[in-house]
Design goal:
alpha+beta, about 15% strand, globular
């Protein structure tokens, strides 16, 4: 399940996508060349060639729906700029320009989470930093980012896990860096969030790339797929 709204872009062959809804279970598989997957959406994706995944920053990127014409033009620009493209250029292809946060109180908490991902074990502590009551903070955070505080905090902790692994750290070191009690705690949380454990993911030969200047993901070689991070708070 994705926490950030995601623009999935095929750079060659179409990919297949299906999504889950409580009222209708899994949708049928459908072929796509580009799709916007809303945040908090359980989905399965099969890719058959190189793809780009752009993860919108909940704090600063617009959540307004993108028209089909904008998506088609953006995809063509990405294809022309492949195989490597800077983050700002990639987002600009879809008319998504960086801007400041709307609520500086919420931004203050988000930046502290980025600096210390294991901070704010209690929502009350985050609310105090924002100078808001817990109930008001919860509502403002949800309105500002489009997802609950605890879900966002967990997402950023997982980003720390990915960075630690990409830097050559062990799962135990990654768990410690992200504030998990143990590697077993990380494993169970990772599985609930991504559908498999971190060790299972690494066993597939996945190469994690968290560089800030590459957003393309090669899916052609199943033996060694690559995971790339795009712009995020």
């Amino acid at each position: 399940m994705n926490v950030a709204t995601t623009i999935a872009v095929s750079l060659r062959q179409p990919f297949e996508l299906r999504t889950w809804a409580k009222s209708a279970a899994w949708s049928p598989w459908r072929p796509e060349v580009i799709s916007v997957i809303p945040s908090e959406t359980l989905h399965h994706l099969k890719c058959f060639g190189p793809m780009a995944f752009l993860y919108l920053d909940p704090l600063t990127d617009s959540r307004n729906p993108l028209s089909n014409a904008v998506l088609v033009r953006g995809r063509e620009r990405l294809k022309l700029a492949a195989p490597q493209i800077g983050l700002d250029e990639a987002f600009a292809a879809f008319g998504l320009m960086p801007h400041g946060p709307r609520d500086v109180r919420i931004a203050r908490v988000v930046r502290e989470i980025e600096r210390r991902p294991n901070a704010f074990g209690r929502l009350q502590d985050a609310a105090a930093l924002a100078c808001l009551s817990p109930s008001r903070f919860r509502a403002r955070f949800d309105a500002e980012l489009g997802l609950p505080f605890r879900r966002y905090r967990l997402w950023r902790r997982m980003a720390t896990v990915m960075r630690t692994i990409a830097d050559g750290g062990s799962l135990t070191e990654a768990a410690h860096a992200a504030g998990f009690a143990s590697s077993a705690h990380l494993s169970s949380t990772f599985r609930r969030m991504f559908g498999l454990t971190a060790s299972d993911l690494l066993a597939l030969g996945v190469v994690i790339d968290v560089s800030e200047d590459i957003v393309l993901s090669e899916c052609e070689h199943a033996s060694q797929p690559k995971v790339h991070a795009a712009r995020a708070a």
